[in-house]
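Chapter review: from sequence to fold.
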Amino acid sequence: IYPTWYHFISSIMILYLVYYIIRVIQKKTGISMLWFLIAVLAVYLLMYAFLCDKSRYHIDDVGEHWCRFQFLASMLVGAYFREHYDRIGSKITVKIALSRIHEVSGFQFILPIIQVLLVGSTAVLFVKAEKKGVFERTSALIRKSVTFVAGLTLEIYLGQGLIIQKFGHLPFPINFI
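The token string follows.
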């Protein structure tokens, strides 16, 4: 069961346990999810400052587990926006510029923070769209198609690791199929 060859699956297994513990603590203490998010960010920045090899760019290399901070922060951002769903108004505007800094490995800590902000911004946009009834006005075909693909995301991820690695070296169109 653990560890698996599929890093994302093992990350989810670990992080849902951490997430569950955070939620239990939150319910017992009443601490805002925002404080847990800030704590995760602080731990990440401290570990980055003292433990990360800054001589090369590697922070989003899935083999090094740094991305788990990003995944946990994304889960906490989702929980925060779910808790504050009713407060998200139509006047919130989101501007995100995503840039990867591969050349300057000393600043690689910025990328996961930007990606978590992107996840949060995307969540706000979807909440706003839902509140305006955008999803209800789409055709049944589009809703069914999106639901079908969303239901296959785990299979797509697992297939990506197995199928693409085994058949990706074959010539087109065989590798595309």
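Two observations follow directly from the output. Confidence is low (pLDDT under 50) at residues 90-102. The first helix runs from residue 7 to 29.
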